[in-house]
Specification:
about 375 residues, 33 strands, alpha/beta, seven-stranded parallel β-sheet, 4 domains, six-stranded parallel β-sheet, Rossmann fold, 5 helices, OB fold (Dihydrolipoamide Acetyltransferase, E2P)
Amino acid sequence: MEIIRVPLLNANEDEVDIVEVCVREGNEVRSGDLLFVVETTKVTFDVEAPCSGYVRKLSVEKGQRVRVDSLLCVLASNPNEAVNVEEVPASNLAQQFRASRKAQELAQRNKLDLSSLGLTGIIKESDVERFLMERAVVKRKAGALKREPLQSSPESGQPVLMYGAGGHARVLIDLIRQSNEFFVVAAVDDDTPNDEVLGVPVLCESMLTELRTQGIDHAVLGIGSTRNHQRRAKLYDRLVAAGFKVPNLIHPRAMVEPSVSLGIGNQIFAGAVVSSAAKLGDNTIINSGAVISHDCVIGSHTHVSPGAILAGGVEIGENTLVGMGVTIFLGVRIGSNVIVANGCNILTDVPDGSIVRTASPLPHSSSA
């Protein structure tokens, strides 16, 4: 049984005129047959049969003005099928959302109640397509995880969740695969159209809680934002609040001295050097080829980009970006929420909230 209702043709008009009624009660129709012609002040639209069937519950006549979402008719599978359709009360027609005609048609074909999406404003066809895709991925991947217990995975180590599915996540997946400590069981990301990344299934973020209850204790932040460190810090805090343990990840080709002090959730990439007595907070990125010399202190959520070199005793505050190829002089302090552009030579202290685009002047010295 297929329910045919008045489509929304214009987001600013709640009613349409019935220009033509091309069928009668009990008529047999085929998919694509013209059923009705409806009209607003801006458009005339042909309502076609989405499937074959028999016209039942014909509820409109030519010349009538009816509200959007009102019943036009029902297409039953046979002429004697029992048909029971509840009309939408007029008081419920003034919803907090409106749907485009294509969105309504797609929802109708998939037997989807648009009011169940929790959306407001105008719902577009792309919104419905995204919801249907996510629902299919969640069902398929969640079912696969339930059918295959985590302990039966052919990969060694503990299962870990990847938060993100972009370029940074791909680098981390390769890093993790070179270690026997973890294996990536799934990634979550609402901003990618793909359902896998390097062979890892991608789920929507609403799966976070379910994955945690399935026994996944660890998660890593696979989002390497270079300009919005406050957002990256909030995503990290979300993982911690959800009960995940966020491990330190160290590439096997990085060099980290035994005396280095590490918080949690730090990511140290291939070719990086973290020297004696250095201290890293939480959720830092020490990218490929970066050098953190002895006694340096790196604040939480800070990103030291590829090829940057920090001399001994440098201090960097939280939420700071040190660009590619930057060099920082011995003992210099860089504040929090700072951006240092690529290639700068930093010779003097930098206050909180600064954006540094050029080399700083030489520090004052009393020696000849």
